[in-house]
């Protein structure tokens, strides 16, 4: 095959339209994925900043909740002990 200024290329218009549609679909899909990833990264950054600003609060809240559960268990145990002493 010889390439020069008289070389001709025959293309089927149906194939060209399908190829263009396929490329447009790929570009659109890539853009949508890229925007979703960027949005998720932004959300993750925001959450990380919030967590860095409140680590002591979260830790203290967790400790308070655990202590409240422990106090409730202790109160239940005291009530059980008192009720069994009264039965005797």
Strand residue percentage: under 5%
The number of domains: 2
Overall 3D geometry? rod-shaped
Total strand count, please? 0
Low-confidence stretches: none
Mean pLDDT: 87
Order of helices and strands: HH
Span of the ends, CA to CA: 110 Å
Which structural class should the secondary elements be placed in? mainly alpha
Helix content: over 70%
The rounded Rg comes to 35 Å
The number of helical elements comes to: 2
* Major pleated sheet: none
Describe the overall structure:
With 88 residues, the chain is mostly helical. The chain has 2 domains: 13-53; 55-88. It is 84% helix and 0% strand. It is built from 2 helices and no strands. It has helices at 13-53, 55-87. The longest helix is centred in the middle third of the chain and has 41 residues, at 13-53. It is rod-shaped. The model has no long low-confidence stretch (mean pLDDT 87).
Q: How would you briefly describe this protein structure?
A:
With 88 residues, this protein is mainly alpha-helical. The protein contains two helices and no strands. It has helices at residues 13-53, 55-87.
Key terms for this structure?
about 90 residues, 2 domains, rod-shaped
List the topology elements.
Blueprint: H1 13-53, H2 55-87
